[in-house]
Structures are given as structure tokens and as C-alpha cells.
Amino acid sequence: MKSVLAVGDTHYPFTDQRQIKKIVAFAALHKPQRIVQLGDLYDFYSFSRWVRSRDLMTPKQEVDLGRKQAEAFWAELRRVCPQAQCYQLIGNHDARLAKRVMEAIPELERFLDHTKELWRFEGVETQPSEREELILDGVCFMHGYRKHGDHVKFNMMSTVVGHSHKGGTVYMRQRGKTIWELNAGFVALQSSLPMSYGPQKKLHQCTGGFGWIDEYGPRFIPEW
Question: Disulfide: which of 32, 46, 91, 132 matches 59 by Cβ 3.0-4.6 Å?
Fold first, then answer.
């Protein structure tokens, strides 16, 4: 299998830029042949149906800043790895905008095509929806929606996911062969308001970092 750099949830613009710099530095050093961002590229906090502050920033500010940072993210990775094949997946947070529109004014569905430009970048192949997985060399790449370790059991093939914000690798045997599930963790800024999902802000189980796959297998590389 070709070497793969798997980047989990970035939640732009609420991203840990310190981690992004380390990911770019790692890519520059190890030159992955493929780079996959596993979805939740954006957070879309302004479009959440959960209780949220309206004083953080306007929807326009969030979208504009998020897009600017996402463009810089892909531009930097493509600069240091010009030969890499790049892929952008769609996550459940990325789908927030479309879901809110469909809930409120379903007649505007046809106009949602214009918003897809937010996930298009030069030299990057983008999957069409959050339900669309990517298969590369017999490995399934998807945003994820199950508990860590359950995707590989359901898919019955090695799988790379994000979503749960908990990095790590689990293994299982299938017909005499070892298959695995790699969770790439997340790259969001845990101290930001949109990342404060639970009652405890400092004590949480989220693990920042990224995923790496090469001829020696998959592994999660935590932030250091």
C-alpha cells in the first residue's frame, strides 16, 4: 500500500494551528504518497441545532475564515508534497449547513450545489457526500459514525476514520488475515467554545494527532 497521511477533524476555523504546522512538517519530511482529510473540515458552529452562543462570530465570519484557513491547509500540504494524491472527505459537521437549509426551506435544495465549492481545492479530489466512502488499495477511508473499532467489524476490511476525536488503532482477525481500524484523532482547538461538548472543558478524552500508514502498517501519532 502507498504511504498515507490521514488527517482527522480540523473543524475550521476552530483549529489548533500548532498541530497543523506539525502535520505539514511531518509531511515535508516523510513525503506521503497520499493525503486524506477525513471530514469535518469545517465546524459550522453557527449552523448547529444545539445550544450555541451568538456572540462568538457571525455565520459569514465563520464560513469566510474557515474557508481561508482550509485553503491554506491544502496549499501548504500540496506545496511540501507536490506528487501526493490528495482527497477530501465530508463529515457530519460539514453537512450541518445543508441539513439546516433542508429542515427549514427544502425548496432551496437545488441551490445547495453552490455551497459545494467550500470543499473543492486545487489538486484535491473531493467525495460527493458524507455517505460516500473512499477505497484505496483495499482500505476504506470514511468519516465514521460508529464507536472506535466497530467500523472494521461492519466493513470487514481495514478502515480509517475520524469523527470520535479519539485516536488509536485496533486489530482483528478475518479468515486468517489481520485487518485493522485506525482513528486519526482530531486537530481542532479543544479550548475553543465550539469544542466544549461536555460538562468538563479541561478533562476530556479527545486525542489530538494524526494517522500514518506505510509498509509497516497503521498507527496513530499523538500530538507532542
Answer: 46
